[in-house]
Structures are given as structure tokens and as C-alpha cells.
TrEMBL record:
Mitochondrial iron transporter that mediates iron uptake. Probably required for heme synthesis of hemoproteins and Fe-S cluster assembly in non-erythroid cells. GO terms for molecular function: ferrous iron transmembrane transporter activity. The lineage of its organism: Eukaryota, Metazoa, Chordata, Craniata, Vertebrata. This is Solute carrier family 25 member 28. Belongs to the mitochondrial carrier (TC 2.A.29) family. It comes from the Eukaryota. Residues 1-28, 40-60 are annotated as: Disordered. Residues 18-27 have a biased composition (Low complexity). It comes from Equus caballus. PANTHER family: MITOFERRIN-1-RELATED, MITOFERRIN-2. Pfam families: Mito_carr (PF00153).
Amino acid sequence: MELEGRGAGGVAGGPAAGPGRSPGESALLDGWLQRGVGRGAGGGEAGACRPPVRQDPDSGPDYEALPAGATVTTHMVAGAVAGILEHCVMYPVDCVKTRMQSLQPDPAARYRNVLEALWRIIRTEGLWRPMRGLNVTATGAGPAHALYFACYEKLKKTLSDVIHPGGNSHIANGAAGCVATLLHDAAMNPAEVVKQRMQMYNSPYHRVTDCVRAVWQNEGAGAFYRSYTTQLTMNVPFQAIHFMTYEFLQEHFNPQRRYNPSSHVLSGACAGAVAAAATTPLDVCKTLLNTQESLALNSNITGHITGMASAFRTVYQVGGVTAYFRGVQARVIYQIPSTAIAWSVYEFFKYLITKRQEEWRAAK
């Protein structure tokens, strides 16, 4: 406050150093005055009459308030990078999760835990077997997550302004996450079908093109969206829980909403674990619809499992209530680092892109 009083005096009396003022303070005031006068001359602003606002030089730009006109692009780029990295890093665990959710697995594909499964897959099927289908997953994850994060950020702000102006609304966060899921799953579902069929034990598909061609010729284009309703039924509550938990934890760990990697990692990991455990039964049904597991089909009188009700009924007929929680360990283990990676990478690239935009605008 002492500097602000001297700044006001400097405006009236000129930039000369006054008594008791250090050279550093004089230089700081000169800079404020020059910027204020420049604004007043160029835009009619009475810049010299406004008290200077002190800002922490280490705080960086407010990356939550992105530059006008660049918001959607920034969110889409950051989201695409985060989605691709998340799926690529965690893909081997995702392969194990798919196999552990099998209702009637081959005796050679019965695993006690994630580490044992990875070791046996690599030892008996080759080093790169857990990575089969990664290319189609990465191809789908980029645009899916770009739409996902851009839609979420836009709707979160719009709904929060309506529900709780000037604050954060958990209802807005959950609703934005649900709507964003519609776009994400529409882009990602075909890739999920191909990926999971290539991940299954004794899968006849070695290349993505072989799998796509076989599904298209034998089951039609609708097979790529057979699990879409179940996917939405799973992901809508998953994302609602996920986003609400993440934003709730951010309010406690990062109330100023600055770029804080540790808070993003911790909040993302906890949010992913809670949402994953709660929606495991729906994920088991989604896997069954995507893979059309041959042994499970024998217990279904229709020949093909279509729709969520049919999937739920088949899961219960084959394995009872416990079958709904097959692979829950792998799912939670997958989701904890997965959401931690997604949020930390997303927030980092959002911060980085915003900072570069601010530097570019300042240099113009």
C-alpha cells in the first residue's frame, strides 16, 4: 500500500525520485507511469490516474482465464495430447482388464492379478502382445478427448454462470461431464470395439484392418456401435462422479486454481478410482457387448448379445452377481494413473499454451 501512495504522488509531481525512495522503487514507478500514460494517449484511458496493481511475478498468467478467441483451440489441443498419452501409457493394463473381465476365460487365460497377467502374456504370447491394438486406440483417443475437454470446459463455465454466478457449481461440473461424454463416446466407440477384440486371448486379428473388415462384413456397421448405449450408461455416471470429485478436491487442494501439478495428479487419481469402482458392473457388460465372447454366447438364446438388458442378463446367467465385478482390481489400477496422467498432462498443456499466447500478445 505504501508503494501505491507514492505512485499517486508520482503522477502529480512527475517521475523524479522523492525523498526516502530507493532507486529500485523509482524505476518501478517510472514503468507504471509510462504504461499508464501510453494507455491514456492511445485509448483515452486515464491510465495515470489508476493505482498500480501489484502482481506476483512468479504467478504467471491466469491459465483458467484463457485469451479471447483461443479457448476452444487450446482446450482441444491440450485434451488431444492428454488423451493420447493416457491411453498409450496405460494400454498394457487395459489389455489385462479386458481379459480379466472375460466371463468364461480359457484355462490358459485365467489370471490372479494384474502383474501375473502381464508376465504370463509377455512370456507366452510375446513382448508386444499387450500392445496389440494400440494404434487404433491412439487414433480414436485424439479427437475423442479433444471434443471431450473442449465441451466440458465450455459447458462448465456456461452452466456455472447460470447456476452459481461467480463461483463453482458441482451440478454444473457433473452436467458438463455428462454432455461431454456423448461426444467422446461417439468418436471413441468404434475404436473400443476393434481394440477389445484384438486384446482378447487367442484373438484371430493381428492387424487393425483385418479386424475392421471382418466386423464390417460379418456383423455390419452397426456392430461398431452395439455397445454405445451401454457405454453411455456407464460413462455418464462415471464422468459425473469423476468431474464432481475432481472439482471438489481441487477446491480443497488448489483453491486459487493455479497450475499446481501435485494437486492435479492427486485429484485426478482419487476421482478416477472412485468413479471406476462404482461403474465396474457396467464396464463388464460393455466388454461383453464389444467382444461378443463366444462361450458366453452359448448361454444366450438370441445368438448375438444386443443391448444393455441382454448383456446384464447374460452376465448374471454365466457368473452370478460376482461376475459384475470381474476385473475390478485391474479397472481401478488402470484408472488411478490413467486419470492422473490425463489431468496433469491436460492442465500442463493448457498452462503452456496459454503462457505462450500471453507472451505472443505482449510482444505484439
